[in-house]
């Protein structure tokens, strides 16, 4: 198995893969400023300053594996005849090492303006092909917030990945401080964050908060109080009365505490070679 990073990036029809640099921070921060993008990742992006900090932290994390493992996460740009390395990024995709096993995990995400066109599947397929053809690893995992991100579960299925089991959220969370930051973000998102559907937000944010509480990030009673107060201040909540907000938020939060498992998918080099991911 190779321990050195390949100089060749994955190849895709509509995307250009390149290593993240510090010049990508502002564009990456703009992607992360959309609460719909960050609802299914571990991030805190409540203010422009936090978005920049989050982008810097994630770039450092995404680049950290290259020397040690021979793989990492790439910045993604649109492939166009007049494309330039200075074009703003539209997403990210690549592999990261984990604390819960030797198999690397695939990560991918896109700005909302680029959802729905199959780019996540294209990026992930190119990354997996790069890893197996380059002898980087023998299998690849995807750990997905299935309830919060059914789109990623669908991508995993298109890639030929098989759900191999579940992982406790407490085992997935890398550190308590990050968990506290993300909990603050979810409470902010429930009260002030932009959303496509307020009723969906009433489920998403409390459910994720419940996951975080299940990992010991904060207490149950005070967190639920903060969630309920935030939800009743959201500017899009006018057509949902307080009684309904109480019910939806409380049920979602309780479910997050109880059903605190993430879905784990895997594809092996052999399965890939046999065409399961085509």
Describe this structure in words.
It is a single chain. With 278 residues, this protein is α+β, with helices and mostly antiparallel strands. It folds into two domains: 123 residues, Aminopeptidase (3-Layer(aba) Sandwich); 83 residues, no CATH class. Helix content is 46%, strand content 16%. It contains twelve helices and seven strands. A hairpin with an 8-residue loop joins strand 3 and strand 4. The N terminus is likely disordered.
Question: Which structural class fits the helix and strand makeup?
Answer: alpha+beta
Q: Count the helices. How many?
A: 12
Percentage of residues in helical conformation = 40-55%
Number of strands: 7
What strand order characterises the main sheet? 1-2-3-4
Low-confidence parts, pLDDT < 50 over ≥5 residues? 1-5
The name of the CATH topology of the largest domain is: Aminopeptidase
Overall shape: it is globular
């Amino acid at each position: 198995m190779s321990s050195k990073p390949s100089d060749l990036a994955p190849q895709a029809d509509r995307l250009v893969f390149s290593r993240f640099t510090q010049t990508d921070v502002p564009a990456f921060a703009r992607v992360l400023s959309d609460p719909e993008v960050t609802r299914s990742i571990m991030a805190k992006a409540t203010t422009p300053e936090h978005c920049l900090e989050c982008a810097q932290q994630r770039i450092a994390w995404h680049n950290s594996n290259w020397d040690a493992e021979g793989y990492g996460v790439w910045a993604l740009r649109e492939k166009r005849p007049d494309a330039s390395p200075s074009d703003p990024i539209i997403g990210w995709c690549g592999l990261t090492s984990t604390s819960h096993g030797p198999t690397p995990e695939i990560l991918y995400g896109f700005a909302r303006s680029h959802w729905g066109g199959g780019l996540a599947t294209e990026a992930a397929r190119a990354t997996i092909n790069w890893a197996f053809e380059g002898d980087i690893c023998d299998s690849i995992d995807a750990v997905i917030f299935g309830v919060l991100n059914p789109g990623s579960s669908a991508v995993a299925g298109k890639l030929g990945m098989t759900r191999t089991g579940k992982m406790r959220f407490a085992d997935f969370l890398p550190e308590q401080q990050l968990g506290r930051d993300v909990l603050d973000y979810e409470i902010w998102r429930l009260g002030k964050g932009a959303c496509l559907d307020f009723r969906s937000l009433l489920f998403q944010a409390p459910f994720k908060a419940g996951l975080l509480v299940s990992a010991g990030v904060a207490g149950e009673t005070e967190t639920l109080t903060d969630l309920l107060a935030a939800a009743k201040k959201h500017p899009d909540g006018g057509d949902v009365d307080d009684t309904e907000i109480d019910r939806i938020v409380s049920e979602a939060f309780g479910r997050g505490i109880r059903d605190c498992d993430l879905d784990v998918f895997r594809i092996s080099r052999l399965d890939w070679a046999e065409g399961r991911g085509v």
